[in-house]
Amino acid sequence: MISAREYDKDRFDRSKRIEWLDMDAIGDCRCLVVGAGALGNEAVKCLVLSGFRDITIVDMDDIVLSNLNRCVFFRSSDVKNGLKADILAERASRLDPDVTIRSKRMRIQELERWDAFGIVIGCLDNISARLHVNAHSYYHKIPYVDGGTDGMTGKIQVVLPGGPCLQCSMNRTHYKALETRFSCTGKDAAFYVPKMAAEITTTSVIAAMQVREAMKIMSGREDMCVKNMSYYDGISGETFTLEVKKDERCENHEHEV
């Protein structure tokens, strides 16, 4: 009988071979994932497999049939019978018995204890919730990695304490759409808008980019983080950046010295 080599008995042996990765800091981090849809499914999967050991998921929505083509943890039997946050937490925890994943069935606006978290991963589908997460993360000096997709394109933005925030990059079009939910109307939506295109390959890429940035941050390598706003074009396979400058008039920076 051939026994496994000692290094093959370590779940994170291959990750530890990346010299700058701080697996202890990653494992000790309390991570907040806001949104349990397509991006949330992929992000939580990558977080667990990357060594994050304490994850809280916030989402208020039920699972519907149209979620199933891009949400790896959802099943047909979950449709109308399960909430996204609960099902995602339960299924993702099976990937590693040592991980703790909590679900909170609520709107992100109802979350009170922000200072309990070391990093926030935004997997949201509406601008209003994004700005709420951005403001609270920035106020509490918690790094925030925002992600979003539209069909074959997507983007991420890393918001670090002291730097430009999500609101600094907003334009008039964004503000007009503040209360619009782009892929899920929710129980208390005031009006309906057509759903945006979505597919799994772009979602997977964007979520993976978000988690990779989280790994850099928790390893103390903010110098390696994506600067500005990074866009991904799934048709051409190209990634490009749009410069984001700190807006001194942004209300999130009003009290900074």
Q: What's the gyration radius in Å?
A: 18 Å
Write the CATH homologous superfamily: NAD(P)-binding Rossmann-like Domain
Q: Per CATH, which architecture?
A: 3-Layer(aba) Sandwich
Strand order of the largest sheet: 3-2-1-4-5-6-7-8
Share of helix, binned:
25-40%
Q: What are the secondary-structure elements, in order, as H or E?
A: HHEHEHEEHEEHHEE
The number of domains is: 1
Q: What is the tally of beta strands?
A: 8
Number of helices: 7
Distance N to C terminus: 65 Å
CATH class: Alpha Beta
Write the layout of secondary structure elements.
Blueprint: H1 13-16, H2 23-28, E1 30-34, H3 38-50, E2 54-58, H4 84-92, E3 100-104, E4 119-122, H5 127-139, E5 144-150, E6 153-159, H6 172-176, H7 200-218, E7 229-233, E8 238-242
Parallel strand pairs: 1-2, 1-4, 2-3, 4-5
Antiparallel strand pairs: 5-6, 6-7, 7-8
